[in-house]
Amino acid sequence: MKLDRKTFEQQRSLRFGRTNPERMRLAFWEAMVQDGNGPYRLRERFEAHAVTYIQFMNPSKTRVLFQFRKPSEVLVGLGKALVALVKGNNRCRISAGGPIWNFDRMGQTRTKLVDGRTICVGGEHEDHYDPDFAIYNDVVVLHPDDQVEIYGYPKAVFPPTDFHTASLIGDRIIIIGGLGYLDARRPGFTPVQSLDLSTYRIEPIAATGSSPGWIFKHEAEIDPSGESITIRGGEIEFEKAGVRVHRQNIEEYRLHLADGRWEQITDRRDWRQFEIKRKAFGMLFDLPDLSNFRCGDGNLPRIWFDDEVFQPKSVPHDPILIEDLNLFALEVDQVTIRAEVDAFMVRLIVEGKLPEQTVNRAIEEIFENIETAIGAPCQIEEL
What topology is assigned to 104-264 in CATH? Predict the structure, then answer.
């Protein structure tokens, strides 16, 4: 990418549109879309920059961010003091300018139209620990002749979104759900927006009825008639005892487009969900020292669970073979108990009705197996 420092400094930062929509005619943004790379090399090239922020993690792993916009300001002195205070802390980061606008994103939707356009909505770059972490609220239009159009929106009109769905209905795209920034989430509410493909204007749909709540990472299926959209899977954020928690979405919901009405089309209240984590904050497994590791195929050694961990000792069951290291399942009295594993937790879902005593014993024995496997105390919570 051929880019001079002046253009970079003028156009590097995120900004919201002032109208619904605003065509963002920024050469740097368009080049980032066409280039397809992230901002890392740009930081290497333009590291001497006028805007600095300091980011570090305190002992409770809470993210703390201090931003200094003008080096001439007295806040720079405060910044130096903070650097001295946390010197030697390997979680301290000093980065220039805040996040760099880029098109290397997760949780973005891409909808291909019959005329060759591809409509890209929102998405996030990396996660909160990264200096370029950001969640976007733009619409990027990719034309078949490689032309790029970028549209921005006021935050109040279209909040930053990621891990939503985009369903093509006639001459509009229906955007449902999304994770977004923590302070913008509204447990119990499901955002629904309509994107007009002729004007790129975004309008909210004031839906009523039994909605899924704050849902993300879900799937959307359009009814063959085009009159409704069915939502299934994903996760839901809700409040429990004043704390935000996530649980798997086990129900299916239908949005009727004619009147904006949500309908819950399944009833799985008998299903139970559990979450297992370490008592001490952190990953389930301590990462091994790989400094001297050599492997011909380039793969890392396996540090994940074996199938036996998810087989309770005293509860009769049949293992279910799944070709995925992150998923495990077994069948107890014709009811599936499914385990989903990530780096920080195990989620267990009992997909049907079993005697309470049977469920409790099976989950407790799996919990004990997990503690033994990772060699550290854990905690379990029913969601």
Answer: Neuraminidase (2.120.10)
